[in-house]
Every structure is written in structure tokens, then in C-alpha cells.
Design goal:
This protein is 30% helix and 20% strand. It is of the alpha/beta class and 415 residues long. The strands form 4 sheets. Strands 4-3-5-2-6-9 form a 6-stranded parallel sheet, with helices on both faces. Strands 12-11-14-15 form a 4-stranded antiparallel sheet, with no helix packed on it. Helix 7 crosses helix 8.
Length: 415
């Protein structure tokens, strides 16, 4: 769990214990509240943007920059870890990533896909995996991010249905519009949503870091077996998590993570697919050496996996079965190229209201959602901008501006 999620842990707990905080008419956060608290309680992204401008190297704010499409800030240090990858084998061959995942998943009940929390693109790839696995009978999406509480009246993803308003209090990373759209699309495809994260009543205060990590991984595995697998005996499950939770082997410290504990406790061998460490953060961030070598050799136009004589590249260091490499796609109309390449989204050009003297956010919100909603897409609009491009799935939306003083409605849009 990263710094930003820890920073809002008390807010999540409050929303769980007092559902009124998470309702559409949530009370305003105190004026001195942190940007992440204001985002969680008020769905106010502009304070986050201002905080990022003031401290672009703050690790917690870097990942929140991904919620605003600011990949240069979000990915500034994402791929700069220690070198140590082996040379790219001369006999390495590339395959389409989705096709390889589908083939490997044919005889698996559980598939685990991870992400780097700073990379909105990784959450966009989740949507593509959801689409690819649905014809195989995968029908449950379980996510580490989903709020898991037994408090009476607490919101739960289990009650979410396609076409309904999506409660933003269900998960911190849901405040990334790309992730929220993936979850909405999952429900539309027929997936049921499930949570398995460690609950507050499963924590022990005062433990050292390694003991707390072990307790969390054990709780996640236990919860997954009891709350995801047991109630859905005939289902196949796609799991979405961060970083090392998908590891099937211990890390360098000897820590055993969620996927390994799940296999040990249930006997189920999950297919684990890593994105977090191969990264593929271009064109706005640096990539690890192995990823750079792969992309330079194969020059893919879509996501790939790469096989050498000794197995799938990038998988073993991540403790995974497969590792995905994403191509660096050039921006389109100032928006991420990978977002523009999503065939489920349509390009929509919007005239920007003028005159303006300050930076605002242009947002498209699903018509069924309240004003305190996670946008389906949004971007930062500089004062001089005359128009902007959104990428939206078919549907009905309300266009609006988030300004310093509040929300300014523009018009309804049907895509």
C-alpha cells in the first residue's frame, strides 16, 4: 500500500463507518484538508492539480497526477530503478500480449494482473484484458483497491450493476477516470465485482513493517478464498492488484505475497501477468533497460510479450508467468496515444468556453452520476485553450468545468 492510500486510510475508514461521508451529498472537507482528502470527500481534482504544480516530485502526488492525465509528472521516476536485467536474448520472439494472455488463461480459474500505481495506462490495459477474457467465461473482477468493510451500511462493490452511478468511495484509485471506466465497462460486460483487501479488523497496531506486510498478504488470500471463490464456485476470476501482490515466488527479502499465499491455501495456480516492472512508460517516462531493448528491437505498435529460450522475458524477476511490454505511442491532440488507441472510445472535440483567466478542468460525467462523480474523462484546460479533445465510450454525458469556485455545467453530450 503506497503513501497516498495510507494518507487517505482514515478517510476510507470514516466512509466505511459513516456512509453519509461517501454519499452523493458528502460534507465538504475542512479548508486545511490535504488534496487527497478533498478529492475523496468532495471529488475536487483542481486542488490536486495545484498541489502537483507546487510539489511535482512528491511521491504521493506523482501517482495522483495520473488521475489528471499528467503522465510526465506521474512517470517521472517510474522506470528509474536499479539495472540488472540480463541482455535481451538473440533468439527472443514477440507475440501479441492479449492473445498470449487468452491462450495461457484457457485452463486457469484465476488470472492476476498487476499495475504500477503511477501508470494510468496500466489501468487502461485492464479494460482490454477484461474484454479479452470475458468470452472464456471470466465473470468476476476482484480488485485490491475496492473498499472491503463489514461495517453496517458501508458501501460495497458487490451491489454495483451496469449502468448505475458509480460510488467514488468504493476505492481510492477509482478516482482515476481511466480506472473508473474500466470498472463500469466490466459491469457492462457481465462481470460481478468483488473485494478482498485486508479489513480494518484484520490489522494489528504496532507491528513492524515486514510483519504487517505478511499479515496483509495472508488476510488478502483468506478473504479472497472466503469472499470471492466460495460464493462463486463456478466462476472464473480476474484479479487486479498493485506491484508485488501478484508474486508467486518470495521477493528478495523473503516476503511471500498474495498470489503465492492464495496458491498455497487454495491449491489454485493463478496465471500472473505483470505490467508494473516492465513499465513501458514512454513517451513520457523512462523505461527499464530490458524494456528499452525490447521496444527498440521489435518496435511494436501494440502490447507484446516476449519469449526467449529460458522463458518469458521480465516474468521471473516479477514472480509472474507473463510480463507485458507496451509500445510508446505518441500523444494525439495532446492526449495519451494509448487512450486514443482504445477502440471502445470515440474522439470528441469540445469548444472551450472563453474568455478564461485561470486553468480549469474540462470533465465529461456520466449522465446517471451525481455532481460528485468520477469523470469518464477529463483534462487540464489552460486559459488560452480554444478547444479540447476527449475520448469517451458511447453513452450520455454532462460536460462541465471544474473551476476554483466550483462546477460550471456546459451541456449534455451523446456519444
Amino acid at each position: 500500500m503506497d503513501m497516498t492510500r495510507r494518507g487517505v486510510a482514515t478517510v476510507l475508514a470514516a466512509a466505511s463507518a459513516f456512509p453519509g461521508l461517501a454519499a452523493a451529498q458528502a460534507s465538504p472537507a475542512p479548508a486545511e484538508a490535504s488534496p487527497q482528502t478533498r478529492l475523496f470527500l468532495e471529488r475536487r481534482y483542481l486542488p490536486v492539480w495545484r498541489a502537483i504544480q507546487a510539489a511535482p516530485q512528491d511521491p504521493g502526488l506523482q501517482q495522483m497526477a495520473s488521475f489528471l492525465g499528467d503522465e510526465a509528472t506521474a512517470l517521472a521516476s517510474a522506470g528509474l530503478g536499479p539495472a540488472g536485467d540480463p541482455p535481451l536474448p538473440a533468439d527472443a520472439t514477440a507475440q501479441d500480449a492479449l492473445a498470449a494472455i487468452v491462450e495461457a488463461a484457457r485452463d486457469r480459474r484465476v488470472v492476476v494482473l498487476n499495475e504500477a500505481h503511477v501508470a494510468s495506462r496500466h489501468r487502461g490495459f485492464l479494460a482490454r484484458v477484461l474484454r479479452a477474457l470475458r468470452p472464456l467465461g471470466f465473470d468476476v473482477l476482484a480488485a485490491e483497491d475496492f473498499l472491503n468493510s463489514r461495517e453496517p451500511g458501508a458501501p460495497t462493490v458487490r451491489s454495483y450493476r451496469a449502468g448505475a452511478a458509480l460510488d467514488p468511495s468504493l476505492g481510492f484509485y477509482l478516482h482515476d477516470p481511466v480506472y473508473a471506466e474500466a470498472v463500469r465497462e466490466a459491469a457492462g460486460l457481465g462481470y460481478r465485482l468483488a473485494s478482498y483487501e485486508q479489513r480494518e479488523d484484520q490489522r494489528v497496531s504496532g507491528e513492524d513493517k515486514l510483519a504487517a506486510m505478511a499479515r496483509r498478504e495472508t488476510a488478502e488470500a483468506d478473504n479472497f478464498i472466503a469472499d470471492v471463490l466460495a460464493p462463486n464456485p463456478g466462476s472464473r476470476v480476474l484479479v487486479h492488484c498493485g506491484y508485488s501482490h501478484l508474486r508467486k515466488t518470495p521477493d528478495h527479502r523473503g516476503t511471500t505475497w498474495f498470489a503465492a499465499r492464495l496458491e498455497e491455501k487454495s491449491g489454485i495456480d493463478p496465471l500472473c501477468v505483470s505490467q508494473a516492472y516492465t513499465g513501458s512508460f514512454g513517451p513520457h517516462g523512462a523505461d527499464p533497460p530490458m524494456t528499452t531493448a525490447v521496444l527498440e528491437r521489435f518496435r511494436p505498435t501494440d502490447s507484446i510479450v516476449v519469449r526467449g529460450a529460458n522463458g518469458w522475458l521480465g516474468a521471473e524477476p516479477a514472480g509472474a508467468d507473463l510480463a507485458v511490454f507496451h509500445p510508446p505511442l505518441a500523444d494525439v491532440a495532446g492526449r495519451p496515444g494509448w487512450l486514443a488507441a482504445d477502440h471502445e472510445r470515440r474522439r470528441v472535440e469540445v469548444a472551450a468556453p472563453r474568455p478564461r483567466t485561470a486553468t480549469v478542468l474540462l470533465q465529461a460525467v456520466h449522465a446517471v452520476d451525481s455532481d460528485q462523480a468520477i469523470p469518464a474523462d477529463q483534462l487540464v484546460l489552460a486559459p488560452e485553450a480554444a478547444s479540447a479533445v476527449l475520448f469517451l465510450r458511447p453513452g450520455v454525458y454532462r460536460l462541465r468545468l471544474e473551476t476554483e469556485t466550483g462546477l460550471v455545467p456546459l451541456r449534455t453530450l451523446t456519444v
